[in-house]
Write a structure and sequence with these properties.
15% strand; 381 residues
């Protein structure tokens, strides 16, 4: 009976390890289930999967089982960064839970922190669909979502309700970051106003902020990475931040397509404005060395590329930033993290924390536990 139960669990949850399992069964079932999901629209499957998980987590014994199966319980992975206590260093990057709809479910899957957004002052539909595309041959995604979100006021209310409920019940220690941006209709010269609105609206609802000026999917947004434009945004936010009774960590998310000169400007500005950290990196506009046919890429069109093709470049930028800052500014690493080996590579290169996105899509719900187990074992060596 014990062996039968174990094999049944492995059949339905092939990425978790249960004793006496058959490796071929896990591999076959995971490939089969992923192929079914990948046959449908990427954006539709995203919401279907998360809403199914949400429904399951509303049932007490299922919620408890998911937590016991997917969460990492080892306290040795706890880290204090930006003055915040992270239960483990594996987080979920912005863009996955844009509207703070799935925080309980993502915590149940073991994430140590979740970055919601990108949040804009006004609700925004984003770009026309389809706008999210898979590149299975490259283990990559292309997206041109365009900051689709419910707007700062609605998301703040949702976060407030989530915090109030969970703090009363003492059921969460999940760190939540707020990734903030500007509305498409706001001219760049006044972009600082949108970041200010989001900052003030979300201030009491999130643990840290990430300023997003690096998405390629809002026209002209990356121009805000230029030194003077960025100085205006960051200086204004820090002035507001320092006027609060207790300031919140302020981070900047950067693109992987910057030159060393541009990176040097960002390092200098980060020190000047006393940023608490950086997120390296966002998606890339490059299409170099992809296995996917060029005809398919042309059909897909514009958008930011994420996943395995970004891994090396994002690590190079991480190493450069760590060297240029002398390790004085903590960095959250993002880009091409699929395994424990990938996560350790980022941490060894100077990262304080790591963020997943595309790896979560390709590797499945047990990815956090797998990475945490690997990092636990690596610490013992």
């Amino acid at each position: 009976m014990k062996n039968g139960t174990s094999n049944l669990l492995n059949y339905f949850f092939p990425r978790l390890y249960f004793p006496h399992s058959e490796n071929y069964l896990r591999i076959m079932f995971y490939a089969f289930s992923r192929n079914i999901l990948f046959a449908f629209s990427a954006e539709s499957v995203h919401y279907f999967s998360m809403n199914t998980l949400k429904a399951g987590c509303k049932i007490g014994f299922i919620d408890k089982w998911i937590k016991s199966s997917f969460q990492c319980k080892n306290d040795s992975l706890q880290k204090e960064v930006f003055g915040l206590n992270f239960k483990n260093p594996v987080g979920l990057g912005a863009g996955f839970d844009k509207n703070a709809l799935y925080l309980h479910e993502l915590e149940a899957l073991g994430f140590g922190f979740v970055e919601v957004g990108t949040v804009t002052p006004l609700p925004q539909k984003g770009n026309d669909k389809p706008r999210l595309f898979r590149l299975p041959k490259d283990k990559a995604l292309i997206n041109r979502m365009g900051f689709n979100n419910d707007g700062a006021n609605i998301i703040a209310r949702r976060l407030y309700d989530w915090r109030t409920t969970n703090h009363k019940q003492q059921t969460t220690n999940l760190i939540v970051g707020g990734n903030i941006g500007k509305n498409k209709i706001r001219p760049n010269e006044n972009a600082w106003k949108d970041y200010e609105i989001c900052f003030n609206t979300l201030f009491d609802c999130v643990d840290y902020f990430a300023v997003n000026v690096s998405s390629p999917n809002t026209p002209g947004l990356r121009e805000l990475q230029e030194k003077e434009a960025l100085r205006k945004i960051l200086s204004n936010l820090q002035n507001i931040n320092m006027g609060k009774l207790k300031s919140k960590p302020l981070l900047l998310k950067i693109a992987p397509d910057l030159t060393n000169e541009q990176l040097d400007d960002i390092v200098a500005l980060s020190l000047e404005t006393q940023l608490d950290g950086l997120v390296a990196t966002n998606t890339t506009i490059s299409r170099d060395k992809l296995k996917t046919a060029n005809s398919k890429l042309q059909t897909i069109g514009a958008g930011g590329l994420s996943g395995k093709p970004l891994q090396q470049k994002s690590t190079e930028i991480l190493e450069y930033l760590s060297k240029q800052t002398g390790g004085k500014i903590p960095v959250i690493a993002s880009g091409g993290i699929f395994t424990g080996v990938d996560a350790k590579e980022k941490l060894d290169a100077g990262a304080s924390l790591v963020q997943l996105w595309t790896g979560f899509i390709y590797e499945g719900p047990a990815i956090v536990k797998k990475i945490c187990r690997y990092l636990e074992d690596a610490k013992k060596l």
